[in-house]
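Listing S7. Sequence submitted for prediction.
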Amino acid sequence: MAPLVSTIEIARPPAEVFAYVTDPSRFTEWQGDVVRVQEQAPGRFTTTRRIGPRERTFTQEVTESRPPARWSVRGLDGPLRPSMTITVEPVADGTASRVTFALDFEPHGIGVPLLPLVRRQAAKGTPISYRNLKRRLESGVSK
């Protein structure tokens, strides 16, 4: 399946947007389902998300980091391993940014039959997170 792709424009410079959106310690501020994030080692962290009534923890590693333009992570464990690529492009002479999110899942075992449900939930929930991100950055809360 193709990744779930969303694009949003944020009235902040690319370097500022990139620094905030790729900082796992800030995920709880704009992603409503993230309960906590813990750094495990440089480039590796765990994200605990509320999925329905339960909490699930996933280990992720950064697979690419090219500030201020591109950042990718992939899941290392669990039945549905998420991967995300975030691309930040300058617009409006560099005073604003176009942010593109490409989210995908790699199913394993029990994750195979769950994949359609998880993709539907992600398609509904991620736009809310992206609007939260835009609101926070444009209001200056990112500092």
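Caption to Listing S7: primary sequence and predicted structure tokens for the chain studied. DSSP finds three helices and seven strands in the chain. The first strand starts at residue 4 and ends at 10.
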